[in-house]
Design goal:
Layout: H1 3-27, H2 42-46, H3 51-70, H4 76-96, H5 101-104, H6 107-122, H7 126-148, H8 154-168, H9 172-195, H10 207-223
Helix pairs in contact: 1-3, 1-4, 3-4, 3-10, 4-6, 4-10, 6-7, 6-8, 7-8, 8-9, 8-10, 9-10
């Protein structure tokens, strides 16, 4: 089997398995306080018919696309798990406008481990520095948006550090592409969301667009 094909298949399979398991973790998430009567409980959300299959397929597609663009790149060590986590976070945020700390915060040490392993395998220790700086820059940008503009939730700030670390590991151009793409995709995405009645104002779940923007940024960075 061609190496490129093997990498794509392996990434897709691993991401699919992780995506398949994600609803179990979602079902165990504690409910936020204070309790919101209008929020869909996490166990109910996780029990949505066909959710495990949708998570698995979506995670496989994202990881497969990244692997096809990057090839046998050690940075897939953190991108593949992040693909499965990102799919779950995007769906949860879309349904509840929340990004659970129990899913986001553990991703930080996991990303650090992934960055370290990728840096060692590639022989590029500056990859760790790039990832950390990317995380700090992304976090600072989203913190400022949360602090001084309406509509941005602090969950987006927490997620931004993970997104920035992943993008920063690919360099400044990719970091810029990914952060900018999130706002472009978000602006374009608001229009159909508004027309379909998913939002009645400019307030909508931004996490899915942050994650999609990161995928776009990594692909653009690799192809340009």
């Amino acid at each position: 089997m061609d190496v490129q094909v093997a990498v794509v298949v392996s990434a897709a399979v691993v991401a699919a398995l992780l995506g398949w398991l994600m609803p179990r973790w979602v079902a165990r998430l504690p409910e936020p306080e204070p309790i919101d009567a209008e929020k869909t409980p996490y166990p109910e959300l996780a029990a949505t018919p066909g959710l495990t299959v949708r998570y698995a397929v979506a995670a496989a597609v994202v990881a497969g696309v990244l692997a096809a663009v990057l090839g046998p790149d050690a940075r897939l060590l953190f991108l593949v798990p992040l693909s499965a986590l990102g799919v779950a976070l995007a769906q949860i945020d879309f349904r509840t406008r929340l990004l659970p700390k129990r899913l986001v915060l553990p991703a930080y040490p996991a990303m650090l481990v992934g960055l370290a392993l990728a840096a060692v395998l590639r022989g590029e220790l500056e990859l760790i520095t790039g990832g950390l700086l990317g995380g700090v820059i992304a976090w600072a940008i989203y913190w400022l948006l949360w602090r001084f503009t309406p509509g941005m939730g602090f969950g987006d700030v927490r997620l931004s550090g993970i997104v920035g670390m992943a993008l920063g590991a690919f360099g400044w151009h990719t970091l810029g592409y990914g952060l900018y793409a999130a706002f472009v995709v978000g602006a374009l995405g608001w229009i159909p969301l508004r027309l379909m009645g998913f939002t009645k104002d400019r307030h909508f779940a931004f996490g899915p667009f942050m994650l999609l923007g990161a995928v776009v940024g990594i692909c653009l960075g690799a192809l340009t």
